[in-house]
Design brief:
The chain is built from ten helices and eleven strands. With 255 residues, it is an alpha/beta fold. It folds into two domains: 90 residues, 60s Ribosomal Protein L30, Chain: A; 156 residues, SPOUT methyltransferase, trefoil knot domain (Alpha/beta knot, 3-Layer(aba) Sandwich), CATH 3.40.1280.10.
């Protein structure tokens, strides 16, 4: 069991400002924690209740020296972000990547003011599926450690590099490293059917319903549209992102 003061400090991590201040975040459930462990991310502590069980946590952690802390079911309910807690949560340090880590990468995803955590999480999952090296959250996008976002990644957040609060100035600096910036734009003259993806590319995706911001448009080297039926005006950002990432991957594989 943990003290009330310790529980209060952990509960405080439900708020973005406290996650940023402490440089820590909580993840819940087998899938997220197992993915973290399998990809070399070591939790500072793992909290579990009787609802999860000691045998299950021993199986999950294996021989790792991760600190395990038993807490009561009422404490877990207070700690949890969901109405039916899975009975296990891990305290993780925030990611420490910088843009310099991506200098040798070939495909990056930049989220331009994508504020919906569900869409952002799905885009992270798509990025893993289509071989992207990293996802970058621009200023004005949702927080990387938002609990809903983490859940919607289904654990893939730990399989791809990710960082947040990247300004347009820093986005522009990627061009000096040889990257071409490509945006999805339903009004673009050129279609993805007409173009090949550059070897080093940053795919810029905007939010709904405004699309890519004017600031980002001014930096983009190439704007492309996805051919759609005349019955459909546009796709949501997660669906459009999946198509554009598939296009980027296939263009690379076809070389």
């Amino acid at each position: 069991m943990i003290s009330n003061a310790r529980l209060k400090a952990l509960i405080a991590l439900k708020q973005k400002k406290n996650r940023q201040k402490e440089g820590k975040f909580l993840v819940e459930g087998d899938n997220l924690i197992a993915s973290a462990l399998e990809n070399g991310f070591d939790p500072e502590e793992i909290f579990y209740s009787v609802d999860y069980g000691k045998n299950n946590i021993d199986s999950l952690i294996g021989n790792r020296p991760t600190k395990k802390v038993f807490i009561s079911s009422p404490q877990m309910r207070k700690l949890s972000d969901v109405s039916t807690p899975p009975g296990i949560a891990a305290l993780m340090p925030t990611f420490k990547y910088t843009l310099d880590d991506f200098a040798t990468s070939s495909k990056l995803l930049y989220m331009d003011q994508v504020s919906d955590p569900g869409n952002a999480g799905t885009l992270i999952r798509n990025g893993c599926a289509f071989g992207f090296d990293a996802v970058i959250f621009g200023q004005g996008s949702c927080e990387l450690y938002n609990p809903k976002l983490l859940r919607s990644t289904a654990g893939y957040i730990f399989q791809i590099k990710a960082l947040e609060n990247i300004s347009y100035e820093k986005l522009s600096a990627l061009k000096q490293q040889g990257f071409k910036l490509i945006s999805g734009d339903s009004n673009a003259r050129l279609s993805i059917e007409d173009q090949k993806c550059p070897e080093k590319a940053v795919l810029v995706l905007g939010n709904e319903p405004r699309g890519v911001s004017e600031e980002a448009k001014n930096l983009v080297d190439l704007a492309l549209r996805i051919p759609l039926s005349s019955k459909v005006d546009s796709l949501n950002v997660a669906a459009a992102g999946a198509i554009l990432m598939y296009w980027a991957r296939n263009a690379r594989l076809a070389r």
